[in-house]
Structure formats: C-alpha cells, structure tokens
Amino acid sequence: MSANAPASFTPPSLLMCTIGLSLATFMQVLDTTIANVALPTIAGNLGVSSEQGTWVITSFAVSNAIALPLTGWLSRRYGEVKLFIWATLLFVLASFMCGISTSMPELVGFRVIQGMVAGPLYPMTQTLLIAVYPPAKRGMALALLAMVTVVAPIAGPILGGWITDSYSWPWIFFINVPIGIFAAWVVRSQMRTRPITTSRQPMDYVGLITLIIGVGALQIVLDKGNDLDWFESHFILIGTAISVIALSIFVIWEMTDKHPVVNLRLFAYRNFRVGTIAMVLGYAGFFGINLLMPQWLQTQMGYTATYAGLAVSPLGILPVLMSPFVGKYAQKFDMRVLSGLAFLAIGASCFMRANFTTEVDVGHIAMVQLFMGIGVALFFMPTLTILLSDLPPNQIADGSGLATFLRNLGGSFAASLTTWIWIRRADQHHAYLSESINTYDQATRDALTTLGGASSQAYAKLEGVLNSQAYMMSTVDYFYMLGWMFMALILLVWFAKPPFTAKAGASAGH
Question: Is the model's pLDDT at 8 over the cut of 70?
C-alpha cells in the first residue's frame, strides 16, 4: 500500500493494535541478538566449540533472509493479517522447540524454522501500520517502528545475559511464547473485520529453489570451513561447487524471469547499487561488532553474560534519543554527508577498540559503545534513502525488500566470517608467541618464577596468558580491519548522485 493512500480501515483501538504489531516485531528483532551473549553458555552446555556455537546466529539470519522475498507473494495469496498472525504463532512454536532442544543440530534446525517464519513479520508490521494510521500520522507510526527496531537489538544482549545468568539459556527462547501469543491475539481481535483481498500470482519456484540451495550451501561452507581445513576437504569443495552453480543459475534466471522472486534488475540504477553495497557492508560490520564484543568479554576477559550485555548496551542510548530528530531533519542535509558521518563514527569506534588491552576497564568499553551509537543513529535512514532515491515509484517496495534481504544475508555471512577470522588470527598469534618460549630463555624462566616455578601449574598459567594475549591481538587485528572498511564506505557513498528525495515506503526494511 502506498504511504499516501487513505486509511481504509480503523481498528477498535489504534493503541492496542499498535502495541500488538510492535510487540511481534520487537520479539523478532530481539531474537537476532538475544543469543549473542548466551553463545559461550549454549556452546558449553551442548558440548560444541564456540565456532560451532555461532551456527545459532547464522542459521536464524540466513533462513530469515531467504524467507523475506516470499513475503509479498504470501501476503497477496493469503492476506496480510492472516499471514502476520500465522507467522507470529509459528514463531512462538519454533521458539518453544528451540528452548527444549538438547543438542546443537536440534537447536540449529529449530532456529532455521524460527528464522524462516520470522521473515514476514517486519514487512507485515510496517504494511499494517500504514494501513490503519491516517496519512497525517503515518510518519509517527513508522518512527515508532524504527525506534522498536533500534531498541530491540540493544535490549537483546542485556536481556539475554540476565536470563542466562539468572535462569538458564532456554529461557531466552521461552520468553517469546507469552509475548507472541499476546501479540497474535491482540492483532486478531483488532483486525478481524479488516477487508481481505487475495490474488493468485505465479510463484518463481526455480528462483526460490536455486536461492535456497545456493545461499544454504554457501552458509554451510562458511560455517564448516575452519573445522574441515577449507579446500583441503572434499565436503567443502563439493559445497562450494554446489553454491556457485546454484547461485549462477539463480542470477541468470532472475534476470530473465517475468515474476522474479528477487528483482536483480534493480542494480541497473546507480544510487540503488551504491546504497545497497554501503548498506550491506555497513550492516555486516555492525553485526560483526555486536557478535564479537560479548564473546571476547566472556571467553577472554572473564565477564559474566549479564556484565557483557551491560558493557555493550550503551550502544543503544544515542540511537533512541537521536532517531526522532534524524527522521524529522535529515531531509535538510545531503544524505551522503549523513551516511559518511555514520561510517566515520562507527569506523572511529573500531579504531578505539583496536587500542584495547587485556587491562581495559568496563567504563572505557561502555564509552566506546556509547560513541558508536552516533554512527548507528545516522546509518539506516540516510543510507536507505540513497538506495531508494533513483528507483521508479512502482519499484520502491521491491527495492526495499531486496536491500533488506541482502542486508540480512550480509549479517549472516559476517557472523561466520567474524568467528573464523578471530579464531584463525588468534591461532597464528599464539604460534608466533610460542616460538620465543623455551626453558633456555631468561624471560621465560622469569615468567615461570613469577607464576610459581617450573611446575605443571605454572606452565598451564603461562599457556593461559599466551592464549589471552593471542586473542587480544586477534581482536585488535579485527577492529583495525573493520575500521578501514568503514573509512572506505565513506568514499563509496559519494558515488551516489543527488537528488535524494524521500519516497513512499522509504522506511521499509529499516
């Protein structure tokens, strides 16, 4: 529905309807980050490595991304309200199954289902909010939704940490059950009399199947690569070949099909191309930071899940305070300037983290997170406005959906690559540090004396110090790499050409 179309239906209580819709979105967005701080606990309880524990994040993100392009077809086929309610209830069921999982394959399987049924929730929430609010108040409704999508990822680590420490990790999934049931009940009671228009449209099955196979195989390759020594493994070679072939067929088919599941032809537009690359890489970097910080704080710095969540949570303070002003005044500025400032602030925060040592205190960590919030507040809206600015009005919805799909996929791949880079660099640093350690070296003998003499306990303590320093050096390397990537993105956005006028649907896919 166009943002300028009149509201054809008003629910009995606009407030209750808004609460029901927003709660479902809050629950779904929360689940992208709530497991981050619980990963070390989940991995330990289920007897897998921290690298394998990352599958809990990537399985949700990749299946969520794959489900997004289906939203339009499903809503036209079954109706927007019915799709929203069924997606919410299936999300509740999948969340419950995640909570009662007893092995990593089980948990990952249910996370895949959870991510898939969550796909339609955000787009449907936005569509239904636009449908029930009068034109004059739609901007306020979408600003509220943007606020929810900013607050939820920040609340995730705090809530996840507190639940994991105070109760047990399954409760990070069980918490969705009452919230989801309440949201579905409220929306059904408020919108059951809304007129339904459905239509049968052809489904691009070839595009969908090749997308699932191609992206799924690529995600498995990224997740399993380090465990199996990459291209020394036949499994990785076969997985890579399947992914390349499936994605090649997918691209060719989507460029020629009349009703593509993903409209790749939009990349012909310059601003869409530039803005989408900036959005995907920027979000991937943001996702990587949010994943690595809690893991490093818990596994290397000895923080509990709760304290790790609290240390990273200041990231959300400035976006919450600044979002209303960004929405109101952003159009007075060149969007490239605002996006550039976002990348400058996030990149600068990465360079600040690259100066961390194992002695860094929680106050310093929190201040850097707070500073990064400036960049997060300025990132989504201007970058999204740039990528939608040169699309024809009838392509806005497709453009927003494609950008959101690629953004979520970028986050999923970033999760796998972040863990792989972090562990691989730590192993390399550990090897370099170990080379200079031997009992004939005076510095080594002095260190052992400090640790209590040349005993097995002293050697174990020395190994712990080496490990901690190796991971610290790896963390520094990672943040230097991200810092320079964000600096490069500042240059990239200047390849976009004005004017950057806001169009109907420009908040989609925030």
Answer: no
Tokens linked to 422: 């972090």
CA distance 502 to 483: 30
Cβ 384 vs Cβ 403: under 8 Å = yes
Q: What is the pLDDT of residues 21-75, one digit of tens each?
A: 888 888 888 887 777 778 888 888 888 877 777 788 888 888 888 888 888 788 8
Ranges of H-type helices in 68-103:
71-78, 80-99
Give the count of beta carbons closer than 10 Å to the beta carbon of residue 162.
18
Do residue 467 and residue 386 come from a single domain? yes
State which residues form the domain around 455. Answer: 265-510
Read off the pLDDT of residues 169-178 as tens digits, 9 standing for 90 and up. Answer: 899 899 899 9
Give me the residue label for tokens 């009399």: 193
pLDDT attached to residue 443: 64
Domain boundary among 260, 281, 297: 260
SS3 300: coil
Domain boundary among 201, 218, 242: 201
Residue 37 exposure: Cα atoms within 13 Å on the Cβ side: 31
* Both tokens assigned to 483: 């810092």
**Range from 75-89, 124-138, 380-394 carrying the lowest mean pLDDT:** 124-138
Compute the distance between CA of residue 22 and CA of residue 186 in angstroms, rounded to an integer: 11
CA distance 265 to 255: 6
C-alpha torsion sign, points 123, 281, 412, 257: positive
> 286 near 345, Cβ under 8 Å?
no
Distance CA 108, CA 43 (A): 12
Q: 442 falls in which pLDDT band (50, 70, 90)?
A: low
Q: Indicate if 100 and 189 belong to the same structural domain.
A: yes
Q: What is the DSSP letter of 48?
A: -
Q: Which residues of 479-498 are buried (b: 16+ CB within 10 A; e: fewer)?
A: beebbebbeebbebbeebee
113 and 194 together in one domain: yes
Tokens of 182: 């309440």
Number of structural domains the chain divides into: 3
User: Do 235 and 364 share a domain, yes or no?
Assistant: no
Domain match, 216 and 229 both? yes
Q: Which residue has the tokens 């997985």?
A: 239
Q: End-to-end CA distance of the chain, in Å? A: 17
Quote the pTM value.
0.81
Question: Which pLDDT score, from 0 to 100, does residue 3 have?
Answer: 42
pLDDT in tens, 78-116: 888 899 999 999 999 999 999 999 888 999 999 999 999
